Amino acid sequence: MTPSATGTAPPRPAVAVLGTGTMGSGMARSLLRAGLEVRAWNRTHARAVPLAADGATVAETAEQAVRGADVVLTMLNDGPSVAAALDAAAGGLHAGQVLLQSTTVGPDATADLARRTAELGPVYLDAPVSGTKQPAEQGALTVFVAGPAAVRGKVEPVLDAIGRRTVWVDETPGAASRLKLVVNTWVITMVNNIAECLNLAEGLGVDPRTFLDVMKGGPLDSAYLQGKSAAVLSGDLAPSFALSTALKDTRLILDAARASGVRLDLVEASAERFARAEAAGHGGEDMIATYYAGRAPDATAG
To answer: Quick check: 16 and 41 in contact, CB under 8 A?
Structure first.
């Protein structure tokens, strides 16, 4: 941060991180590398414990984590899990705090959570992120933010630590969540497109590496195509973004589209593929495991 007129840097915020899964733990470590005080809490306590070695204070309860924090960052699974965390933390929340709500929950849940947060005291920022495990660990996420401009100064050190770019969308919560659904629509249709190309190559007896070589360096190539294809070909489906989470987000997109009178045929098909892959046991793998939804029935188990 820029030094103040007195020559001293403004106070750096203490941050409570609620949710230390794949994304939350990476974001917490990015905050710690930036020199911020971090209090970490996870519903399954053991998942937060490793952050102690990085310098975080691991709290036993959500209320302990948020008490005295300047910024509360939530990175959980869905709207109900964020609501449950806020209920658990309610005794430690108060006016003057900022809730940076980064879970992808959709516009309807965002409105509900904003109302609930207002009742508890903190200022609510609708702040979903674009990026997966590696960008979270590197502090290289893109953060979409909607909420009052008056609290920007308080949260900028947090945003600078977790993201390479912050996009301030609007002053009204919900605008950032709507943008996030549009961005995720691109990601979801792309990953299923990659999976189907690999499925068809396999079905036609085409070496998928030949397909990837033909695409490489051309106008239709992308790091995403090459990276996700490599994950399938190597069999390394460790999740950077889990398939079950992608299915959850796909359903949020479809709900929002229906409410706005938009028909999304590709997203409908993507939801079906994700659901088939999840039913075949691939929900905890990376979302490119949608590849298995296009294989012959006797091969879907991997």
So the answer is: yes
